C-alpha cells in the first residue's frame, strides 16, 4: 500500500484506524471527512508530509479559528512515530497529538480550503 485514502461509505462510522507498518507514503487531504475518527495510527510507514486538513479533526475547543470549528472532529490520538516526517517536523510530532493537530491547523490555508470545498 502506498497511499492512505478515505472511502466515503466508511467516513460516517470509522472511529479507530491502525495502518502502521504498511509502507504508506501519503495521506489524502480528504482525511478531514473522517470526523468521528478518534485514533489514527500511521506509525512505521514512509510518510513525509501530513496534510494540513488532518488538523481539522481535533476537538472544537482546540480550534482558534471559528471557520475551522465547523469541521472539528473527535481525533484524540495520532501515532506517526517511525516515519520520515518533514511536515510537521519530528520535533513537533514528538510533542504529541495536540501539538501535531495545532501545527497542521496553523499551516492550513483556510480560504483555499473553503474555496476548494465549494468547487
TrEMBL record:
InterPro entries from the xrefs? Leu-rich_rpt, LRR_dom_sf
Do you know which SUPFAM superfamilies this protein is assigned to? Answer: Outer arm dynein light chain 1
Q: Gene3D superfamilies given for it?
A: Ribonuclease Inhibitor (3.80.10.10)
Checking PROSITE patterns in the record gives: LRR
The superkingdom listed in its UniProt entry is Eukaryota
Name of this protein: Uncharacterized protein
- Organism annotation: Spironucleus salmonicida
